[in-house]
Amino acid sequence: MRHDHLITSKQLSRADVETVLDRAAEIDADPDAVADRHTNTLLGLLFFEPSTRTKMSFETAMKRLGGDIVDMGSIESSSVKKGETLADTVRVIEGYADALVLRHPKQGAATMASEFVDVPLLNAGDGAGHHPTQTMLDLYTIRENAGLDDLTIGIMGDLKYGRTVHSLAHALTNFDTRQHFISPESLRLPREVVYDLHQADENAAIREHDSLEDVLPSLDVLYVTRIQRERFPDEQEYQKVAGEYQIDAETLEAASDDLTIMHPLPRVDEIDPEIDDTEHAAYFEQAHNGVPVRMALLDLLLSDERGGEDDE
Amino acid sequence: MRHDHLITSKQLSRADVETVLDRAAEIDADPDAVADRHTNTLLGLLFFEPSTRTKMSFETAMKRLGGDIVDMGSIESSSVKKGETLADTVRVIEGYADALVLRHPKQGAATMASEFVDVPLLNAGDGAGHHPTQTMLDLYTIRENAGLDDLTIGIMGDLKYGRTVHSLAHALTNFDTRQHFISPESLRLPREVVYDLHQADENAAIREHDSLEDVLPSLDVLYVTRIQRERFPDEQEYQKVAGEYQIDAETLEAASDDLTIMHPLPRVDEIDPEIDDTEHAAYFEQAHNGVPVRMALLDLLLSDERGGEDDE
Amino acid sequence: MRHDHLITSKQLSRADVETVLDRAAEIDADPDAVADRHTNTLLGLLFFEPSTRTKMSFETAMKRLGGDIVDMGSIESSSVKKGETLADTVRVIEGYADALVLRHPKQGAATMASEFVDVPLLNAGDGAGHHPTQTMLDLYTIRENAGLDDLTIGIMGDLKYGRTVHSLAHALTNFDTRQHFISPESLRLPREVVYDLHQADENAAIREHDSLEDVLPSLDVLYVTRIQRERFPDEQEYQKVAGEYQIDAETLEAASDDLTIMHPLPRVDEIDPEIDDTEHAAYFEQAHNGVPVRMALLDLLLSDERGGEDDE
What we know:
With 312 residues, chain A is an alpha/beta fold.
């Protein structure tokens, strides 16, 4: 991998993705081997939007590599409230840290910020834009459970607003996959995303469905996302739609025994807790995979940096 | 000590308590000896309610053992706001940490959460339920200052709502103690707590008093708690009651020279600052004892874990 | 340096300042040499007011010395809300940490707090009072860029309310400097500060100006501060005043090629971003200097402590 920053999973070739996943697998198999690999390294956390698992998982990853973090804290207690620009904030904080993680509500924020800093910057979500480390842990989980080639995956729920879904779908065009998108009419994939997938892979095997029923038996992986109440003007409408896209034991009677169920979490009612203890459930494992995958990404970017540092 | 989780001090036998206090005393005497004992260990902090000293003291304890923490942060910035269940939150976060500390406003939360995780979970307060690490540091402070056997202790203030008090009183039934409970009528120990104490020790020497006056000369330890303004419908009523249960130099004229005064802090007006520099005052020492005691608990639970880890 | 606490830069002699700046320069030149100098050391952070860069920079400094922090967090989640006094809070937290950093909205808070603790306490800002570590990094930046003797400095903007400015101006009286203060009439230096500067150095070369124009060509350093909107009753009045004290490329045509421009940040409109890439701009370097300077201060105070620790 030869990148200074990680802004979008689109910047990564299939070979890059495999480098990251292979490194993550190595680390996962023997975390003690890297426990002191990045001592005296500080990762700066700039979260301009709330986050639990992404932030904790980056923090854990850096600490499991022997390093530590410096956290900007909530924007309520920061200079941002005094009118400081993002460009200024990142330029100040890069003086404290060896790499930066940025989450920001505005699409394009990570790209812009990366132009002002000399240390590696990782995008942890920029509004409706990208969230590449989530995509990498999704790919890792799929590879571990079902393999990334000759894969039939269903992606279900809120396909309209979910940057996680768009990013994953795009990354999967690097592999030999059949993608089924299952959602209510009002939450279908945006047309530009579909267009984009075909641009990335002109033979992309993409289908859209209103219902899980037809497609379920053929799936290796079912990726479920949360349908957000606030998308609907009307509570009744929400209940109707949300109810149709819930998974429980009965739903799974028609599924393959090998079906892997994923979810980026947090879930609300999309997956019945009775599924949690079955072999299908991979969503907690998926959340936990955030650690080795982010360790791999940090390790690769920080090691690049060491080898090829330019003057600052 | 053979426990996977620490939920309540009731789960600990007298021998267990002594194991913890002995370990804490060893650590207190020579903290450098354990400064690298749990390197590469991460403690997950899940505080669903505000806390300063409990949280900082756990953080300090883990770091003084060579480890580090990952903090969920305030619930305002977490997935809890999106409707995630506690069971899901702890299952995600156990993937980041080697042990968890949980504070939660609902009684029973720690027990429930512990059923979903494979790493050791320490209860740092579950509503009106338990707060066993506070009890352990109270016991440690009593033992250091007055001994735990042949002890006469007065517990004064808000005895109705204070989980700290209930938990301490229960733990003391393991030892040869005489317990005097001093409070206004409206803040007496709940009848079920008194019943519980007699169940734990049928010979429990327990007395209740309206006033400190009669009992003060006989006390080895006086444990003072804060009477909360918000318990009273009427400011005047509060002032009258609070005023009667304040300690100052004049109050202490009738006390033994060896009397030890404790308080879980924060205090407001219960103890006059003029007492702070006397030999009686043990409340800051008590707060500081949170560190060696929590170091001992973490050390024992994490070492157990290492020896007897089951598959996860 | 022989001080237990760092409360104000006024307590430091010229020799003390030079000791700190020399140590900072050594650390800056070879940070790896001190990367394990204060392992097993915990710095307690007590910020009763919001801060980004001061707090992160202290955190970075302690971690770059091999130590770690324990953070009280925001006062919303602390015992302060329950009515605890500052004296009690610092006495509890000194039990967790080897040194304390305090920021507090009330002038005099650091002095008061320091009387209650045995570990070194560093003032990170006490209301309109002092902020000595900011002054030290300002002095360090001036010395690196222009030297501290035979210096002509302009200090511009909000001179009335800025504790940063008052503290810096006072510290500069230790050196052979000519100080020009440039501000609108309504934001001039308070008369007592001017008096104070003359008390500190009866030959102090101090002039006040309404406009930058006359004085700019003679300056080695121009220190710009933010004019706060909230100081003005009227938006129009603010716009007029703020507009007059903005720096852009055109302004600088009259300046020396060697002029160094500083700003404590965050800036809003005081300095046009087109200046950022010129040789004049030293404000990001200045922010970054917070790390080696605070490392030097912590190292000196913690090393003192080790040598001359009294019983606690």
